[in-house]
Amino acid sequence: MSLFTANTPVIDEFFTIPALPAFDLVRDIARNEPGLGGVTSQVSTKAFLDVFGSRSAVLICGVDAASYFDVFPGLVLEEGRFLLPGEYGVMITAERAKQIMDTTGAYPELGTTLLLTAAGTAGFKIREVPLVGIYHYRNTGPLMDEIIITDPQTARILASIQVASSSNVEAGEEALGLLDASMEDLFWGSSGAEDSQAAADIVPDSGEGLDISAYFDGFAGETQVSEDTPLYGGDWNFIILRLERGVSAGKFMASLNKKINPLGVTAVNWRIAAGNSAVLLFLIQTFFNGGIFLMSVAGIIAAVNILLISVFKRTPEIGTLRAIGAGDGYIRLLVLGENFILSCAAGALGVLAGFGCIQAVNRAGIIIPNSLIASLLGGSVLNLRFMPAVASASFGVALFLGIVASVFPVETAVRIDPIVAVRQGA
What we know:
426 residues; alpha+beta; 3 domains; six-stranded mixed barrel
């Protein structure tokens, strides 16, 4: 199971994430740990979103609005507002709002009622909640756009989580009066035979009349709570902790787990909490980056060779410049300036080519037949996204590698003997 619901990547049927045991106690223990920067809670489940006649599967995050948005400052509000504590509402990403607009021709305005439905062993659940905000993530991705943020009670209903409370409830006089009422007063009232027959339709008959006590004994037996189950808390799936900058996550988790493991709870890092998909995607990314590193090394070697050939071909020109008084600094600046311009042009062309390839792939609408790969990429249709931050970083890397590849050729050009170079040119 993960923060993005259970059983990812998809290998078999989804199962329900269990409620977090001893929630109140675990949260209090975590709050007392040194180095904690913030704490919030989340209920995770899946549902179908129906809006303007369009239906799609979504990931539901029921959040503690009082603390969630402080723990996750990467959520940037575009329209409306963030959920308020105790409010029933839903928030969607700007990308999902755009998808709804493209599919239905209608844009989901603030206040639009969104229909969320879910089905499971506990039955069919349906909720109507108003749209209160539209946001985007600073670090976005296809999976993140599948997330819908709701109030926790909506998520609990969709996930069929039963909330238990240890607080004392004071009953009114009317409710206390029911303790002295007879079975007839409770279930049949005073309307006589018709109500009695109606009761007979839903209460099993033992052959000797209506056995109401046996019926309710059986019902109580089916819903009996284990003595080992905490009777407080258990209405959240996860407690999310944000550490202060510079705090070691490993040491923090080791200290915390010593205290909470006996309660049946374990603290894990963000990558494990994101699920098997995130772990597999991290491994794929590691191998991919390793390949990019090897290609970069090979590219630097090739660039050095090409630049050296360029310097050797220009030996007479460099010797002439040295002979008329050009210093080492001027020669370095000349060669580096040329290579800097070439690196800028190559980096810009690379970014433009990447942008064009992304657009071509998205227009092709490539279907991913493998469910494992689809879960890793966040959807059954291959959808790539152009990220300006990544493009800027790639341009910077191209520029850096171009300059690094220029160092040896530049020093070679500086060491050229003017007399030998002039003679070679003659």
